[in-house]
Amino acid sequence: MKINKLMMGLAVSGMIFTVSTLQLAQAKTEPNTDDRCDVSLNYDVKIEPKN
Question: What is the rounded distance in angstroms from the CA atom of residue 20 to the CA atom of residue 8?
Fold first, then answer.
């Protein structure tokens, strides 16, 4: 019974480590923003009641 709990703990720890590593790698591959380029998105939203 202790072996099963130990193996489950190692598996969960491994999954957490893998997910955190993937998120860190994804954050580093995001493109850098450039101060010379300013982009803005504008949306006009109208809310009308249903009849």
Answer: 18
